[in-house]
Amino acid sequence: MINYEEMTEEEYLAHCKTIEFARPCVTVDMLIFSMNKEQQLELLLIKRGGHPHKGKWAIPGGFVEMDESLEEAAARELKEETNLDGIYLEQLYTFGEVERDKRTRVISVAYIALVPAGNLDFAAGDDAVDACNFVVKQEHGGFTLYSQERNLILTQEELAFDHKDIVEKGLERLKGKVVYSDIALELLRDKEKFTIYELQTIHEALTGEAFDVANFRRSFKKKFMDTGRVEKLEEKSVDFSRKPSSYYRLIK
Amino acid sequence: MINYEEMTEEEYLAHCKTIEFARPCVTVDMLIFSMNKEQQLELLLIKRGGHPHKGKWAIPGGFVEMDESLEEAAARELKEETNLDGIYLEQLYTFGEVERDKRTRVISVAYIALVPAGNLDFAAGDDAVDACNFVVKQEHGGFTLYSQERNLILTQEELAFDHKDIVEKGLERLKGKVVYSDIALELLRDKEKFTIYELQTIHEALTGEAFDVANFRRSFKKKFMDTGRVEKLEEKSVDFSRKPSSYYRLIK
DNA sequence: CGAATAGTGTCTCTCAGACATTATATG
DNA sequence: CATATAATGTCTGAGAGACACTATTCG
Fold first, then answer.
1. Which residues 229-248 on chain A approach chain B with CB closer than 8 angstroms?
2. Where among B115, B147, B176 does a domain terminate?
């Protein structure tokens, strides 16, 4: 019998390497959100080319390599899928039901990525059979996804694996966090030059509710202007046939 | 070359079983919180009997088995450690830095358990070399742990592995969630018979701040009485030399 | 000027914080 | 009665929601 108590640390570490346990797979699954030109929230889905759930739409993801952290794996997957770096990433939740993947035991760490509007070019991704941004429509206790260009409507039940649960949890997180954090800023086209109304539309897209313009501006000024975190620019928008709006810039 | 595209699902699943990938270990680590008799927040730690970090204090945890979900693994670990069932459990965060465990790649899903006051008897646990409840003292951007009975003070840096980060994240979660959720109720000795002030002390222990009694009672009544979720009992406390306090009962 | 969007003023109601006060038990 | 804790009352200021109003551009 092996006596662990009397081993030195070196002996113990060497011993560990000789033992093999049954281990689950660990993956990262990515909720890649962005705003489209109509100021709607969109989610990137890929169409599965292989089994299981072949032909179904799913959120992109992949295995965590042995030499990368979870955060690094998420960043790598995002890069592979969208060719983007330096994007806001946030760990969401870890999904580990035994039967969530029929092939083998797969534990998936879900991440949220918030891509600034206009930066998403997922055609750059290499391994996706087919990929498409879907507009997220939030409704009473659920959501629907649809793509205008493909004339496609997906109910939440049609997603592969337990991805319905992941999307649901992600939307819940965004909804809750938008009020007390700065995540809405991450979805702006340009943090150095945006209008208050642009930010408002992001808040509205995330919460699924409409806000009063006056009240939104008031809270914006209290939160960002009074604290010196945002400054007003000289430049104004050059829209035709209406009053131009002021641009603001996030400092730091 | 194998053509995944033309396989049936059955063929593919069979094929999968023949492949072996390098896989990380997955564990659950448990933050087991409770309130002591002095109405202080406590955290259960075990003293490591084996390498690595032999002799250091750590939060309890263990491997996720192939046939149990993460939630089930957390419940099992809690049971092994404290012999308790039916305790409030909440997934906290997943820690996956490459070098967090020197032995091999270990990805740890951290859970929070909130044990009702007076129920904790960790001597019942079997696999712990040594276990002890430590009072959690929260301070400006950190915490300290101490055990009166053992005359032991632990700084956050003295914990094994990255458990300092886990505890930190757990305290943050409790602090944030206590204001808008009902988690404080989980730490009550008895949800069917408690005083408002007992609940207040839990809020104070979790946030590390003192509250005005009048204001706390007001918000308690608004949150629980006005909504019919808590009712006042006839029975009153039997303290001597002072006005007895009313008991309340959580409904459902 | 009208049309369209940007942006402000103001009223009300709710609620949190601070703190003074009353209530009810024991000895 | 004094003492100790339970429980309530009240004043204030900050802030959210509703909504009416003004400002600035183009044609």
1. none
2. B176
